[in-house]
Specification:
The protein is mostly helical and 71 residues long. It is elongated, with a radius of gyration of 15 Å. It comes from Leifsonia virtsii. This is Transcriptional regulator.
Length: 71
């Protein structure tokens, strides 16, 4: 998904029609989750610590490790 699509979805999220807004928000959540996972993987491949990644995301080290760490 490119940035123009995200801009469109952000506009749709402000729609007066609540169903249109909710659909746009759901699509943005999915896309942002995907982009976040890629960024975390890139950070780990660049030897970033779980603590540093957690700080960047504004969550605890445990939360980010639980979500993205390998079991």
């Amino acid at each position: 998904m490119d940035s123009s699509t995200l801009h469109t979805l952000a506009g749709d999220a402000d729609s007066d029609d609540p169903i249109v807004a909710l659909r746009a928000i759901a699509r943005m959540h999915r896309e942002l989750d995907r982009v976040e996972a890629v960024a975390v993987r890139r950070a780990r491949n660049a030897d970033a610590t779980w603590q540093l990644i957690a700080l960047a995301l504004g969550v605890s080290k445990q939360a980010v490790h639980k979500k993205y760490g390998r079991s």
